[in-house]
Amino acid sequence: MARPPHPSIPRNSTEATFFAWDGDTLVLNILGKPAASKDAIGKPKGAQLKVSVTAAPRDGKATDHMVRFLAPLFGVRVADIEVVFGRESIHKQLRIHAPQKLPAVIPARDAPIA
Fold first, then answer.
1. Fewest CB within a 10 Å sphere: which of 15, 16, 90, 92?
2. pLDDT: is 17 or 49 the higher one?
3. 68: left (phi over 0), alpha (psi -120 to 50) or beta
4. How far apart are CA 83 and CA 93, in angstroms?
5. Domain extent listing, the chain
6. φ and ψ at 71, to 5 degrees?
């Protein structure tokens, strides 16, 4: 039997997913992979988006590096990305305020969810 999604994971109107919109803020659930060979956005893994970073997982430095990596991909300043939880964990949630760009893995706001 499948487990129900965690209550802190945002839902779209059709299903549990790795992202949701809260007004003009994009909420992302991340499965981080620190100490990777390169910085990269991967594929969704259930209700999380895999994001790899080259930084080592020490004292939240990998999360800080991830935020600096993601900011230009979303067309925002580093200060526009809030780490809601998981700064020192591979499971984290980010709030990206008013993103100007979206990576291909995230559909446009008006696109139907598959």
1. 15
2. 49
3. alpha
4. 6
5. 20-97
6. -50, -55
**Nearest CA to 6 among 64, 46, 57, 36?**
46
Alpha helix ranges (H) inside the chain: 61-74
Q: Class for domain 20-97, per CATH?
A: alpha beta
Secondary structure of the chain: what % helix, strand, coil (to 5)?
15, 35, 50
Determine whether 95 is exposed, middle or buried from the number of CB atoms within 10 Å of its CB (0-12, 13-18, 19+).
middle
Q: Is 43 exposed, middle or buried (0-12, 13-18, 19+ CB in 10 A)?
A: exposed
Give per-residue pLDDT as tens, 32-75: 999 999 999 999 999 999 999 999 999 999 999 999 999 999 99
